[in-house]
Design brief:
Pfam families: HTH_7 (PF02796), Resolvase (PF00239). It contains seven helices and six strands; from the N terminus they run ββαααααββββαα. The protein is of the alpha+beta class. Among the domains are: about 45 residues; about 100 residues, no CATH class. It starts with a strand and ends in a 15-residue tail after the last helix. Bound molecules: zinc ion (2 copies). The site of one zinc ion (ZN) has 7 residues, from loops.
Protein backbone atom coordinates (compact mmCIF):
# COMPACT_ATOMS: atom_id res chain seq x y z
CA UNK A 1 0.00 0.00 0.00
CA UNK A 2 1.39 3.41 -0.99
CA UNK A 3 0.64 6.67 0.87
CA UNK A 4 2.27 9.86 -0.45
CA UNK A 5 4.88 7.72 -2.19
CA UNK A 6 5.74 5.88 1.03
CA UNK A 7 5.43 2.12 1.19
CA UNK A 8 3.32 1.64 4.32
CA UNK A 9 3.72 -2.10 4.07
CA UNK A 10 7.26 -1.81 5.52
CA UNK A 11 8.05 -0.93 9.15
CA UNK A 12 10.26 2.01 8.06
CA UNK A 13 7.56 3.18 5.68
CA UNK A 14 4.90 3.19 8.41
CA UNK A 15 7.24 5.05 10.79
CA UNK A 16 8.00 7.65 8.10
CA UNK A 17 4.30 8.04 7.28
CA UNK A 18 3.44 8.51 10.96
CA UNK A 19 6.12 11.18 11.31
CA UNK A 20 4.91 13.06 8.23
CA UNK A 21 1.33 12.95 9.50
CA UNK A 22 2.43 14.49 12.80
CA UNK A 23 4.35 17.19 10.92
CA UNK A 24 1.37 17.96 8.69
CA UNK A 25 -0.89 18.22 11.74
CA UNK A 26 1.63 20.51 13.48
CA UNK A 27 1.75 22.76 10.40
CA UNK A 28 -2.06 22.98 10.25
CA UNK A 29 -2.15 24.05 13.90
CA UNK A 30 0.59 26.63 13.32
CA UNK A 31 -1.33 28.18 10.41
CA UNK A 32 -4.53 28.27 12.45
CA UNK A 33 -2.70 29.93 15.35
CA UNK A 34 -1.14 32.52 13.04
CA UNK A 35 -4.53 33.28 11.55
CA UNK A 36 -5.99 33.75 15.03
CA UNK A 37 -3.08 36.03 15.99
CA UNK A 38 -3.55 38.00 12.79
CA UNK A 39 -7.25 38.48 13.47
CA UNK A 40 -6.58 39.49 17.07
CA UNK A 41 -3.96 42.00 15.95
CA UNK A 42 -6.30 43.37 13.31
CA UNK A 43 -9.05 43.76 15.90
CA UNK A 44 -6.59 45.50 18.22
CA UNK A 45 -5.87 47.98 15.45
CA UNK A 46 -9.57 48.66 15.24
CA UNK A 47 -10.07 47.15 11.83
CA UNK A 48 -13.29 45.38 11.08
CA UNK A 49 -14.14 43.46 7.97
CA UNK A 50 -10.96 44.35 6.16
CA UNK A 51 -11.71 48.03 5.52
CA UNK A 52 -9.12 50.12 7.35
CA UNK A 53 -10.70 52.77 9.52
CA UNK A 54 -8.64 55.26 11.45
CA UNK A 55 -11.56 56.34 13.63
CA UNK A 56 -13.21 54.33 16.38
CA UNK A 57 -17.00 54.26 16.51
CA UNK A 58 -16.83 56.67 19.48
CA UNK A 59 -14.69 59.06 17.47
CA UNK A 60 -17.03 58.83 14.48
CA UNK A 61 -19.95 59.65 16.76
CA UNK A 62 -18.03 62.56 18.26
CA UNK A 63 -17.06 63.86 14.81
CA UNK A 64 -20.68 63.69 13.68
CA UNK A 65 -21.92 65.45 16.83
CA UNK A 66 -19.34 68.24 16.52
CA UNK A 67 -20.14 68.64 12.84
CA UNK A 68 -23.89 68.69 13.43
CA UNK A 69 -23.51 71.21 16.26
CA UNK A 70 -22.10 73.56 13.64
CA UNK A 71 -19.34 75.11 15.74
CA UNK A 72 -16.47 73.15 14.22
CA UNK A 73 -15.24 72.86 10.68
CA UNK A 74 -14.14 69.50 9.31
CA UNK A 75 -10.55 70.77 9.49
CA UNK A 76 -10.91 71.50 13.21
CA UNK A 77 -12.51 68.12 13.90
CA UNK A 78 -9.76 66.36 11.95
CA UNK A 79 -7.16 68.27 13.93
CA UNK A 80 -8.84 67.31 17.20
CA UNK A 81 -8.92 63.63 16.28
CA UNK A 82 -5.43 63.74 14.74
CA UNK A 83 -6.55 62.31 11.40
CA UNK A 84 -6.59 63.75 7.88
CA UNK A 85 -9.68 65.72 6.89
CA UNK A 86 -10.42 63.11 4.24
CA UNK A 87 -10.91 60.55 7.01
CA UNK A 88 -13.46 62.77 8.75
CA UNK A 89 -15.23 63.47 5.46
CA UNK A 90 -15.36 59.73 4.82
CA UNK A 91 -17.17 59.10 8.09
CA UNK A 92 -19.58 62.01 8.28
CA UNK A 93 -23.18 61.13 7.74
CA UNK A 94 -24.15 62.48 4.34
CA UNK A 95 -27.89 62.52 4.98
CA UNK A 96 -29.74 65.81 4.82
CA UNK A 97 -30.21 66.85 8.41
CA UNK A 98 -33.69 67.40 9.69
CA UNK A 99 -33.37 69.82 12.54
CA UNK A 100 -35.12 68.71 15.73
CA UNK A 101 -38.32 70.70 16.33
CA UNK A 102 -37.13 71.91 19.72
CA UNK A 103 -34.30 73.76 18.01
CA UNK A 104 -34.90 77.27 16.80
CA UNK A 105 -34.69 77.30 13.04
CA UNK A 106 -33.55 80.46 11.35
CA UNK A 107 -34.42 80.51 7.70
CA UNK A 108 -31.76 82.32 5.75
CA UNK A 109 -33.02 85.58 4.31
CA UNK A 110 -32.03 86.22 0.74
CA UNK A 111 -29.47 88.96 0.42
CA UNK A 112 -27.14 89.69 -2.52
CA UNK A 113 -24.23 88.17 -0.55
CA UNK A 114 -26.11 84.90 -0.11
CA UNK A 115 -25.01 83.69 -3.53
CA UNK A 116 -21.56 82.96 -2.07
CA UNK A 117 -23.15 80.36 0.19
CA UNK A 118 -24.58 78.53 -2.78
CA UNK A 119 -22.65 75.41 -3.71
CA UNK A 120 -20.85 76.23 -6.98
CA UNK A 121 -20.86 72.59 -8.07
CA UNK A 122 -24.54 71.70 -7.93
CA UNK A 123 -26.13 74.83 -6.52
CA UNK A 124 -27.26 73.54 -3.14
CA UNK A 125 -28.59 76.37 -0.97
CA UNK A 126 -28.35 75.98 2.80
CA UNK A 127 -31.68 76.50 4.54
CA UNK A 128 -30.59 77.26 8.09
CA UNK A 129 -27.95 79.56 9.51
CA UNK A 130 -26.08 76.59 11.01
CA UNK A 131 -26.12 74.84 7.68
CA UNK A 132 -24.88 77.99 5.96
CA UNK A 133 -21.93 78.12 8.38
CA UNK A 134 -21.15 74.48 7.59
CA UNK A 135 -21.40 75.08 3.92
CA UNK A 136 -19.04 78.06 4.02
CA UNK A 137 -16.45 75.88 5.78
CA UNK A 138 -17.03 72.98 3.40
CA UNK A 139 -16.77 75.21 0.34
CA UNK A 140 -13.42 76.57 1.55
CA UNK A 141 -11.88 73.17 0.82
CA UNK A 142 -10.59 72.58 -2.71
CA UNK A 143 -11.14 69.10 -4.12
CA UNK A 144 -8.83 68.00 -6.90
CA UNK A 145 -10.37 66.14 -9.82
CA UNK A 146 -8.90 64.83 -13.04
CA UNK A 147 -9.75 67.42 -15.68
CA UNK A 148 -12.40 65.82 -17.91
CA UNK A 149 -11.38 68.04 -20.84
CA UNK A 150 -7.60 68.10 -20.64
CA UNK A 151 -5.70 64.86 -20.27
CA UNK A 152 -3.07 64.83 -17.53
CA UNK A 153 -4.40 67.98 -15.89
CA UNK A 154 -6.23 68.41 -12.62
CA UNK A 155 -8.86 70.97 -11.74
CA UNK A 156 -10.19 72.03 -8.36
CA UNK A 157 -13.83 72.12 -7.40
CA UNK A 158 -15.61 73.14 -4.25
CA UNK A 159 -18.28 70.96 -2.77
CA UNK A 160 -20.99 71.22 -0.19
CA UNK A 161 -21.66 68.15 1.96
CA UNK A 162 -24.34 67.00 -0.45
CA UNK A 163 -22.12 66.77 -3.49
CA UNK A 164 -18.71 66.18 -1.95
CA UNK A 165 -16.93 63.19 -3.47
CA UNK A 166 -17.57 60.01 -1.54
CA UNK A 167 -15.57 56.79 -1.42
CA UNK A 168 -12.03 57.90 -2.07
CA UNK A 169 -10.44 61.02 -0.64
CA UNK A 170 -6.82 61.79 0.13
CA UNK A 171 -5.38 64.90 1.75
CA UNK A 172 -2.67 67.15 0.43
CA UNK A 173 -1.32 68.68 3.63
CA UNK A 174 1.00 71.65 4.09
CA UNK A 175 3.81 70.40 6.34
CA UNK A 176 3.33 73.43 8.60
CA UNK A 177 -0.41 74.02 8.88
CA UNK A 178 -1.80 70.73 7.56
CA UNK A 179 -4.15 72.57 5.25
CA UNK A 180 -4.50 71.84 1.56
CA UNK A 181 -6.72 70.47 -1.16
CA UNK A 182 -8.11 66.94 -1.12
CA UNK A 183 -7.66 64.42 -3.91
CA UNK A 184 -11.01 63.06 -5.04
CA UNK A 185 -11.97 59.81 -6.72
CA UNK A 186 -9.37 58.09 -8.90
CA UNK A 187 -6.82 60.79 -8.04
CA UNK A 188 -7.11 59.78 -4.38
CA UNK A 189 -6.40 56.18 -5.29
CA UNK A 190 -3.29 57.25 -7.22
CA UNK A 191 -2.14 59.56 -4.42
CA UNK A 192 -2.41 56.75 -1.87
CA UNK A 193 -0.17 54.54 -3.94
CA UNK A 194 2.50 57.06 -4.86
CA UNK A 195 3.77 60.51 -4.11
CA UNK A 196 2.11 63.56 -5.59
CA UNK A 197 1.51 62.96 -9.26
CA UNK A 198 2.89 65.31 -11.91
CA UNK A 199 -0.51 66.93 -12.68
CA UNK A 200 -1.21 67.53 -8.97
CA UNK A 201 2.26 69.03 -8.50
CA UNK A 202 1.59 71.36 -11.45
CA UNK A 203 -1.74 72.40 -9.93
CA UNK A 204 -0.11 73.07 -6.55
CA UNK A 205 2.75 75.05 -8.10
CA UNK A 206 0.26 77.15 -10.06
CA UNK A 207 -1.68 77.78 -6.84
CA UNK A 208 1.48 79.07 -5.14
CA UNK A 209 2.58 75.94 -3.27
CA UNK A 210 6.18 74.89 -2.78
CA UNK A 211 6.45 71.26 -3.81
CA UNK A 212 10.22 70.76 -3.94
CA UNK A 213 11.37 69.55 -0.51
CA UNK A 214 8.62 70.04 2.02
CA UNK A 215 5.07 70.52 0.90
CA UNK A 216 4.21 74.11 1.78
CA UNK A 217 0.97 75.98 1.19
CA UNK A 218 1.04 79.50 -0.35
CA UNK A 219 0.84 80.94 3.17
CA UNK A 220 3.94 79.07 4.30
CA UNK A 221 5.97 78.84 1.09
ZN1 LIG B 1 -22.81 70.84 -3.57
ZN1 LIG C 1 0.50 76.01 5.44
Amino acid sequence: MLEQGIDTASVEGRAMFGMLSVLAEYQRELIAANTRDGLAAARARGRKGGRPSKLSSDQIELAQRLYDAGDHTVAQIADMLKVPRATVYGHLNKRVDIAPVTQEITVAVDTPASTSRTCPSFGYEPTTRAEAAHQRADLAVAWLHADPDRRGMVISRHHCRHCEPGQQAFDVACSICGDGPIHAGPLAEQAKNSNLTEPVQRWLAAAGWTVTLDLLCPGHA
